[in-house]
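To fix ideas at the outset, we first show an illustrative case, written as a sequence plus integers encoding its fold:
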Amino acid sequence: MWNKEIIYLHIEANKLLDRIKDESFDYIRLNKNVSEKDVQNFIVKKFKENNLKHDKDLPIVAFNENSAKPHYFPLEDSKIIKENSLILIDLWAKFKDSKSPFGDITWMAYYGDEIPDKIKRVFDIVMKSRDNALDFIKSELDKGKIPSGKEIDKVVRDYIYDNGFEGKFIHGTGHCIGFTSPHGNRGNINTKGKQHLLTNMGYTIEPGIYLEGEFGVRSEINFFINGNLKLIITSKVQKEIVKI
């Protein structure tokens, strides 16, 4: 279980991740012909400057159709930014202190003047499915119940499927947050998650819709349930696509 010190370190790491996310979007804005790999290298540099470390995997930076691959990692000859590009950045890190857990967030941005209606619609569905999960958790906690990972996943998946994207949400809704990896081993929020969430333990909510060959949208936030059965969100919650 996470104590006050661990929760503090997690929240502070997320504050830095949020700032680095903003700096990364600014880096794209100010540098023409920047590549996915360039942005990834920029993020890793910022991790080091802020005493943060990632695990064995580097942060995900994906432009346009690459954002439709949930576990895409750019190579040296990666895609270069161009006008009218959707951008997905998924970054996770922790302080080098062994007691520090990871923060793990995903945000979306658009490089161009006018965001296409299809991207807006998919983004809105993903954000609403995330908010539905949070509302469901809160409603269960108000009844004195802690939901299971499977129950939360169903709320998210049903909304995405009901809006015409069945089969386009191709991973679990969330996961426990660990100390050696952003993925812990204390239960996940997915179709097989029979275990009820634990109190004072960090989790992610990260729904997504992935349209192969076109684009993908994901939102990822962090939270925990305290000993009084209150939902505490520990990262910023994206409401609109960041315009670059």
